[in-house]
Amino acid sequence: MDVDISPDAWTNRETSLSPDFVTVGQGVEEHLQHPQLWFEDGNVLVISRNVWFKLHRGILSRFSSVFRDMFQLADADAGHHIQHCPAVDVTDDPAHLHLFFTLLYDGGRHPFLLDPHWPMEFGDARGVVLLASKYDVQHLRTEALRRLE
């Protein structure tokens, strides 16, 4: 899947980052996902409510000690698997998770981290602070707190 995440790709976006989830699957496998956060080579599912994110365990572990510990516990418990991937259930708001994971994956290319004046809704900044605090992602927490001040 080709996704343009260059800074220029964000110039025409709305300031609200509400995700465009799509429904996939049937029966008990029916769920919502966002195409930009569903990687075919992903090796872990993060599930919030009925929204699935297929991500990379190594990337989440690199930036978050909480995810790293969560994955180690899942290995020890031989946690549940869906579609041949270990699955981790979380209780966070899926829209805020979408923004949080987008910021983790886009890193320094996202205007949130590049442009201190890039407009962001209060609720989105608050969601990033809460998730970055919960999952111990200091660089996102620091920037989101700066924006809230």
UniProtKB/TrEMBL annotation:
Coiled coil: none annotated. Pfam families: BTB. InterPro entries: BTB/POZ_dom, SKP1/BTB/POZ_sf. It comes from Phlebiopsis gigantea (strain 11061_1 CR5-6). This is BTB domain-containing protein. PROSITE patterns: BTB. Residues 42-107 form the BTB domain. It comes from the Eukaryota.
